[in-house]
Amino acid sequence: MSFSQEIMEKAKAWPFEQARAIVKRLMILEKRGTPHPASTGDGAVIFQTGYGPSGLPHIGTFGEVARTSMVRQAFNALTNNQYKTELIAFSDDMDGLRKIPTNLPNQEMMAEYIGKPLTDVPDPFGTHESFAAHNNAKLREFLDRFGFEYTFISSTEKYRSGAFDETLLVMLERFDKVMDIMLPTLGEERRASYSPFLPISPTTGRVLQVPTLERNVEKGTIVFEDEDGSKVETLVTGGRVKIQWKPDWALRWTALAVDYEMAGKDLIDSTKVSSKICRALGGTPPEGFNYELFNDETGQKISKSKGNGISVEEWLRYGLPESLSLFNYVKPKTAKRLFFDVIPKATDEYFQHLSAYFTQDEAAQINNPVWYIHNGRPPQDNPPVSFALLLNLVSAANASDKDILWGFIENYADGANPADNPVLDNLCEYAVRYYQDFVKPNKNYRAPTDAERAAMQDLRDRFSALDAGTKDAGELQTLIFSVGKDHEFENLRDWFKALYEVLLGQSQGPRFGSFVAIFGLEKTIDLIDTALSGALLD
């Protein structure tokens, strides 16, 4: 789907807002007389995401790459693919190993390599040439799994190949400017020993946090004190030093001519500092924004070290990848609680957006998340049953596998079957897992009040009077409403809440008429009889 230029210029969707900022950046460079290489056909507009390979990729990694890909997609559409674009997944794998994650094997072996670049640390799993190579492979496997289009870049490779040399020499020349930017951001003790250059000891191979004692711009060297106390002069090029991370971010932006990179809200100050250093190096800081971080179920910030929140693998055990993409698309600048109970809601919202897309005009479609989730080509694949309804169906039928659900679905939706409806088949499997792990342990049936009992008995009798094959969810919903009104519930929400709590052991669910339509009148009547007899309370 391609949109008119007018529609794209007015789109309020945040990826287009970001895309317009990149276009403005290119125009400013053009006016300055230094057109972007992408404008002359000699380069690409560079989008970048960063990754620290001291641990495995996680849900934050997914979010950053997914969101950046959405901005790239909007930019390509806005500029009618006029420019070549590239998304870099940058691994900061030349960092020194600071501590050993507790979940790694061969802890004693790993302890011998504390302080060495991650690419010089042996792989504790024994499958790759280094610890960094192992985690980098996991990153690429992770990104490939979701079909992201990207270029992987290793920090170590860039340093050691000389690709960063030119910018490193500029940083050496402008050492004082970098220090003037960095020192006010540091504590007194840190200021005394700080240097943007972290030399790699020629004797131990460790990345050293030591002061720069001397520097020689003409020779391209610095002097530092090695671990044995000797003074060593080393080139700053060829991978002999690693830059401290804030200046390193600026180095990367400058050397790779990065045009766009977003970062978490916790890096707002770091982004400002790195932008100043980038300008000091003669570069132009990239466009981007600071997204909010995810919180766990208690409102605490999600942390890899704490292991709170949920992982991508855990999400995909219970929900579609598209639901995870939607969760990341919606309101990226708003803090969101990331726990298992958001998965059903995100899943059904995804299908609601997908269903709406094909009935919308361009102005609405361009603000519909599914256009970004599916790279501009949303599929017409909307299941006839919501995920929330499937969860209630699992609950009522006490389904232990998806085949039980399909028995109801095939009776409800003519012609529906697992082979022709793979998405719905997946949803059935997710629903069974989710119910068993999260809903069933927390079910809490209650007895009805006298007024509720009378209303439910009336509902049961009215259902009995209907044709047994009635499947019209709207007709059933209207009947249920009528019973609630006739029994003078002040708030009809209380009536529906009573149905869920007494019949299903939970306080909420989808439209009850839809549930009855798929569960079947006869089985619903049996369920009401069972609940009113008190058997569900046993």
* CATH architecture assignment of the largest domain: 3-Layer(aba) Sandwich
Q: What do we call the CATH homologous superfamily of the largest domain?
A: HUPs
| Number of beta strands | 13
> What proportion strand?
5-15%
Give the overall silhouette: elongated
Structural class: alpha/beta
Distance between the termini: 56 Å
The CATH class of the largest domain is Alpha Beta
CATH names the topology of the largest domain as: Rossmann fold
What is the number of helices?
Answer: 25
Low-confidence stretches: none
Characterize the structure shown.
The protein is an alpha/beta fold. It has three domains: 5-291, 3-Layer(aba) Sandwich (Rossmann fold); 294-373, no CATH class; 443-538, Arc Repressor Mutant, subunit A (Orthogonal Bundle), CATH 1.10.10. 49% of the residues lie in helices and 9% in strands. The protein has 25 helices and 13 strands. The protein has helices at residues 5-10, 14-31, 37-40, 59-78, 107-111, 131-145, 155-161, 165-173, 175-182, 188-193, 245-255, 268-280, 312-318, 321-329, 342-357, 362-365, 369-373, 387-397, 402-412, 422-439, 450-465, 473-486, 492-504, 512-519, 521-532; strands at residues 45-51, 85-91, 151-154, 197-199, 214-216, 221-225, 231-235, 241-243, 258-260, 263-264, 290-291, 294-295, 336-337. The strands form five sheets. Strands 3-2-1-9 form a four-stranded parallel sheet. The chain has a three-stranded antiparallel sheet with strand order 5-6-7, with no helix packed on it. The longest helix has 20 residues, at 59-78.
